[in-house]
Amino acid sequence: xxxxxxxxxxxxxxxxxxxxxxxxxxxxxxxxxxxxxxxxxxxxxxxxxxxxxxxxxxxxxxxxxxxxxxxxxxxxxxxxxxxxxxxxxxxxxxxxxxxxxxxxxxxxxxxxxxxxxxxxxxxxxxxxxxxxxxxxxxxxxxxxxxxxxxxxxxxxxxxxxxxxxxxxxxxxxxxxxxxxxxxxxxxxxxxxxxxxxxxxxxxxxxxxxxxxxxxxxxxxxxxxxxxxxxxxxxxxxxxxxxxxxxxxxxxxxxxxxxxxxxxxxxxxxxxxxxxxx
Length: 277
What we know:
Oligomer: single chain
CATH architecture of the domain at 162-263: Beta Barrel
């Protein structure tokens, strides 16, 4: 930080010498010491002024830029799949999940750079008819492990609550879990002002054909959607179900131990208000 130079008083650039005064004709001896002191004090004051208004900015350490893709970070072959300790149950669940993922895997662009769409086709074709009893053999044949970079990884997680719930209504399970209602639509152009994003707002058309906001949570809890065949499950606790909705997805565990996973399907167009709002 640079300071502005003072416009008055002694400075470090010019030293003021004392001027003799009075009527005496006798030459007055000028002691050079006070002048030197004045210069020194001026310089000291200037330095103190700088230290008061300035601050030392620490040097910023810029972290090194990592590789843009997993492939760019370096690739090495890892241990065989058979050495991973994959149990039969885990392999069976993984195979079932892999079958469901195949349509996406065959269509997506792998941002990691490790695979291309066609690389998945042999495994996806084989997975259709592969017995779950031989799931370990499936992964040993069609998959291999790899070490990316130095092998260190940052793993993130996602919390998925599990609450009591059943597919069909029964005593103790009275909180309806609705699927996406068919009357939740976007307004036709001209029926409502567009949003700031340019998209048409979400809502519904009433009995008169007018576009109106969709039902609020209170309306839905009071039965606005009841009796329309939209119930896909029933939860036991309304508060637990509320927080599951806020989270976006979760699992319903029935008394017999079976689990049903439910997830986000859409929004009503109503603004979000927290439970404490």
